[in-house]
Amino acid sequence: MKVLVVEDDKIAQLGIKKILSSGDLSVELVLAENGKEGVDYFDKAEAAGTDFVLLDLNMPVMNGFEFLETIRNNEKLKDLPVVVHTTSDNIEDLNKCRALGISGYFVKHIDYTVYKNNLQNIVNYWAESKQKGVR
Fold first, then answer.
1. CATH topology (fold) of 2-127
2. Of 17, 6, 2, 83, nearest to 48 (Cα)?
3. Around Cβ 79, how many Cβ atoms within 10 Å?
4. Which residues have a Cβ under 8 Å from the Cβ of 28 and sit 6 or more positions away?
5. What is the mean pLDDT of the chain?
6. Which residues of 36-59 are buried (b: 16+ CB within 10 A; e: fewer)?
7. pTM of the entire structure?
8. How far, in Å, CA of 13 to CA of 7, rounded?
9. Which of 43, 50, 67, 82 has the fewest Cβ atoms surrounding its Cβ within 10 A?
10. How far is 53 from 84, CA to CA, in rounded Å?
């Protein structure tokens, strides 16, 4: 399973790597530091086979909303699953993301165990969907 992680926080990146490398799934993580790097990634051959995007909202250069707008306007990427992974529990942010066609939204929980379980559940869900040929 290949996951593009669009996240500017180095500590969050390390946590994601640690959690996803400790599970039963074989997960290839590709890191982008901001939305622009995430969009640019899809111009590369290595982007083929990306199963879903784990997206932070608050980033420099291009934020998560701008990233979503850009890929949803790209015919090849418009249906790519994007799960928002953010510190924002603001209902307006959630609604804006829904309008931009997200596949999921979860708030980075302060309790590591809860956060780890949430992240593993999301990755497991997309892995099972891939096995079933559902997207």
1. Rossmann fold (3.40.50)
2. 2
3. 12
4. 1, 2, 3
5. 89
6. bbbbebbeeeebeebbbbbbbbeb
7. 0.89
8. 7
9. 43
10. 8
Backbone dihedral angles phi then psi of residue 54, each to the nearest 5 degrees: -105, 115
How far is the C-alpha of 9 from the C-alpha of 96, rounded, in Å?
Answer: 22
Digit-coded pLDDT (tens) for 27-85: 889 999 999 999 999 999 888 889 999 999 999 999 999 999 999 999 999 999 999 99
- Three-state helix/strand/coil letters over 15-39: HHHHHHHCCCCCCEEEEECCHHHHH
Domain locations in the chain? 2-127
Please tell me the distance from the alpha carbon of residue 89 to that of residue 44, in angstroms, as a whole number: 33
Find the helix or strand (DSSP H, E) in which 43 lies: none
Q: What angle do CA 120, 14, 117 make, to 5 degrees?
A: 20
* Sole residue written with tokens 């559940």: 121
| 3-state secondary structure at position 119 | helix
Specify whether the CB–CB gap between 83 and 52 falls below 8 A.
Answer: yes
pLDDT band at 99 (very low <50, low <70, confident <90, very high): very high
